[in-house]
């Protein structure tokens, strides 16, 4: 019975954490204007 209570408590805490993070929304930020390198430079 204790294991069931512990599992239910853990699930409730995890759900509360997910809902809290969802309520905060995405952090403000921007993408880099520089393109990412997609090829490896030639080795000497």
The portion of residues forming beta strands comes to under 5%
Work out the number of β strands: 0
Q: Helix fraction?
A: 40-55%
Report Rg. Answer: 22 Å
Mean pLDDT: 85
Unreliable stretches (pLDDT < 50, length at least 5) are none
InterPro entries: SPW_0924-like (IPR048001)
Organism: Streptomyces asoensis
Protein name: SPW_0924 family protein
What does this protein look like?
This is SPW_0924 family protein. The protein is mainly α and 44 residues long. It has a domain at 1-25. Helices cover 52% and strands 0% of the residues. It has 1 helix and no strands. The chain is elongated. The chain starts with a helix and ends in a 20-residue tail after the last helix.
Brief synopsis:
It comes from Streptomyces asoensis. The chain is mainly alpha-helical.
Entry keywords:
44 residues, mainly alpha, 52% helix, elongated
Secondary structure blueprint with pairings:
Elements: H1 2-24
Protein name: SPW_0924 family protein
